[in-house]
Amino acid sequence: MLEKINAIKEEINAAVATNLQEVEELRIKYLSKKGSISQLMVDFRTVPAEMKRELGQKINELKNYATEKIASLKEGFATAADSDAEAIDLTRTATPYELGTRHPLSLVKNEMLRIFAGMGFTIAEGPEIEDDWHVFESLNFPPDHPARDMQDTFFISRDPKDILLRTHTSSVQTRVMEKTQPPIRIVCPGRVYRNEAISARAHCFFHQVEGLYIDKNVSFADLKQVLLGFARQMFGPETKIRLRPSYFPFTEPSAEMDISCDICGGKGCAFCKGTGWVEILGCGMVDPNVLDACGIDSKVYSGYAFGMGIERITNLKYKVKDLRMFSENDVRFLREFESAR
């Protein structure tokens, strides 16, 4: 029996395998219930009592040796399999796959911010969930202003104070003016919310970029020059602008700005409704009441503000007819902007 044990050990020592299947065959040959070592245990029952201790110890050593050998062979293949798995990386998207593109709103927003950065404006951001004071009261909205009505604003809480989703990024301007003394020159990009029916021309959320400049001796002429420079960089050097009187609670005087239609060259077409002009933003001189409410002396400082919808500018730049397409994540629509990324 001792000769059998030594012979099996030599076999195990010389055993090799080229794959996991062969390793499993070796395990079955030596360690299964019908394997060679199990058969030794059956023969062990007939061994004289005085030899049981020595042979029992030899059989256990053989079994341990076989177990270690097979485990070693198996580990080698497992390591190779892990290396292959790392090389393949099963978490990756199946190939072939197409690269994504930047969203058109992101493309236009980044272009707008680049233009204003070139004019010395810095970026300021604030929370989308705001209180009434920052969204309305500090910006000179009277208590009975329609924008305070539930038809326009998403209110989250009315007690102890009104908490709402901001309806414009002007609230960021208020927060900056509260903590910063002039000169202030900022642009505020962000998402805003209004309680409106969703259609091709309106949505319950959209994106804005608003600008604010406050310093000594700031005039309406300064505002006009900045907006003209923006329009020509965004829509082309031949672009013309016009300012029409308007009304906003937080600016006085206020105006709406149109640009010459780049489709018809100002001659009149369906896009500009035959006028030759397309409205893109609202603007004006900051109302002294707003400056005083934010702790800035309106007798020393003046300033201007402007605001525009990113979707509006994107519509004009890329001729997108339906506002809803910006939020539907239709890959076919997004692929149209691959060359612009």
Overall description:
The protein is α+β, with helices and mostly antiparallel strands and about 350 residues long. It folds into two domains: about 1-90; about 105-340, Bira Bifunctional Protein, Domain 2 (BirA Bifunctional Protein, domain 2). The protein is about 40% helix and about 20% strand. The chain contains eleven helices and ten strands. The chain has helices at about 1-15, 20-30, 35-45, 50-90, 105-120, 130-135, 170-180, 220-235, 290-295, 310-320, 330-335, and strands spanning about 120-125, 130, 155, 165, 185-195, 205-215, 240-250, 250-260, 275-285, 300-310. The strands form two sheets. The protein has a seven-stranded mixed beta sheet, sandwiched between helices. The chain has a three-stranded antiparallel beta sheet with strand order 2-4-3. Strand 7 and strand 8 form a beta hairpin. The longest helix has about 40 residues, at about 50-90. The radius of gyration is 38 Å and the shape is elongated.
Unreliable segments (pLDDT under 50, ≥5 consecutive)? none
Largest sheet: 7 strands, mixed
Helical stretch count? 11
Which class of the largest domain in CATH terms?
Alpha Beta
Helix content: 40-55%
| Helix-strand string | HHHHHEEHEEHEEHEEEHEHH
CATH architecture of the largest domain: 2-Layer Sandwich
Mean pLDDT: 86
The SS-based structural class is: alpha+beta
> What is the rounded Rg?
38 Å
Q: Tell me the count of domains.
A: 2
**Spatial sequence of strands, sheet with the most strands:** 1-5-6-10-9-8-7
